[in-house]
Amino acid sequence: MKLVVLGCGTSTGVPRIGNDWGECDPKEPKNRRSRVSILVESKAGQRLLVDTSTDLRNQLLANGIERIDGVFWTHDHADHCHGIDDLRPLRFGRAGSIPGFASKETCRRLRNRFDYVFAGQYGYPTIVELNSLENLRILSGFSVESVEMPHGPIMTTAYRFEADNKSIGYATDFSEITDDMVDLFEDIDVLVTDCLRREPHPTHAHLGMALELGERCGARKLVLSHLDKSMDYATLSEETPDNVLVGYDGMELEP
């Protein structure tokens, strides 16, 4: 099983428009961050995508991804879903639509905004067959579990994927650690977590909260993601324990 961090930046990316790098060293390639998305891959070559970030096309090209077996959404904020049209080339050559999953509320909001993706239009086929997560347990050889997390005033979905006797979790865009989250990620091999900045934030996890989640669930490896321009790769890497890794675009990790 393998994790690919397609993007690890905040909603504006790093650098921000205007070439604003903040505290990030522009000479360090790992500080150039696109919007967040991950891919998990099994030994058999099955691939699941989480979120269709605004930068999805470039992420798929950079990582040589030409096929997926399913797509999941955490929520409908623009940086997590507005690259949805880049799924069209992944539909080419398939016998049917790409299986897609999200919470009931996220499904509703995605259908309202991107109806053509889920219903076809003007003779174009449906790109994604969108379903609620309620009854999903297994997809393409992966077991899939999920819980809802507080993200300020809304909820977002956390995922746990298991295959080949290994586990990878994804918890982005949360503002509070719940017991359900700790239970979902208990003894997980790799956990990718929201970690916007060092100081507390009303809708995102900060460094202390990210580290707390990893400790409470006993994650063997913790990958920090959704990083803003204050989180310099080298500086942050020196601050964290050995089992905590600072994510970067294109990072590949096997549990």
UniProtKB/TrEMBL annotation:
<feature type="domain" description="Metallo-beta-lactamase">
    <location>
        <begin position="34"/>
        <end position="226"/>
    </location>
</feature>
<protein>
    <submittedName>
        <fullName>MBL fold metallo-hydrolase</fullName>
    </submittedName>
</protein>
<dbReference type="InterPro" id="IPR036866">
    <property type="entry name" value="RibonucZ/Hydroxyglut_hydro"/>
</dbReference>
<dbReference type="Pfam" id="PF12706">
    <property type="entry name" value="Lactamase_B_2"/>
</dbReference>
<dbReference type="InterPro" id="IPR001279">
    <property type="entry name" value="Metallo-B-lactamas"/>
</dbReference>
